[in-house]
Design goal:
Elements: H1 6-14, H2 18-29, H3 33-45, H4 49-65, H5 72-93, H6 96-112, H7 121-138, H8 143-154
Length: 158
């Protein structure tokens, strides 16, 4: 079965009544956890972006504390899982300032992680890619905010 294009879906949704739209949203939320999380963000958290960022940071802290430090294999696997989780929340928000703030926080947590990740080439490359992502996100925000975030980036080095 071929999926319809976004424009076709948008046209069809605009013709639905309120009750039908509600039923579709509820049915959609039953199929994937991410759909339910996105709806939860849009309904309950999108109005207070600062609280959302704080919640994601706290979740990140908890995940970093739970990392199995017995080998670099488990560390690498856990850090990638944490990054995947952060990227998922960034997609929900769709704001560049949130993206920059969460990625900077992730990089700070990686920098402060014990045992040090400086000697691990895959972790160094992952860290560098996140710095590139931060710079890309910052290129599209206001200059004053960019300057504030740029100071945070300067303090990062793995």
């Amino acid at each position: 079965m071929k999926a319809a294009s976004i424009t076709e879906i948008k046209k069809e949704l605009s013709e639905l009544e309120k009750g039908e739209m509600l039923d579709l949203c509820l049915r959609l939320s039953k199929f994937k956890k991410e759909n339910k999380e996105l709806l939860s963000y849009l309904l309950f958290e999108s109005f207070d972006e600062a609280a959302f960022v704080t919640k994601v940071k706290n979740e990140c802290d908890e995940l970093f504390e739970q990392i199995n430090r017995s080998s670099y294999y488990f560390i690498k696997k856990s850090i990638r899982k944490i990054l995947w989780n952060i990227k998922k929340h960034i997609r929900y928000s769709n704001e560049k300032t949130t993206e920059a703030e969460l990625l900077i926080y992730f990089c700070q947590k990686m920098r402060d992680f014990e045992p040090s990740l400086k000697n691990s080439a895959p972790m160094k490359n992952l860290f560098d890619r996140q710095l590139d992502g931060i710079n890309k996100a910052l290129s599209s925000i206001h200059e004053d905010l960019r300057y504030d975030y740029h100071e945070s980036i300067e303090s990062l080095s793995l």
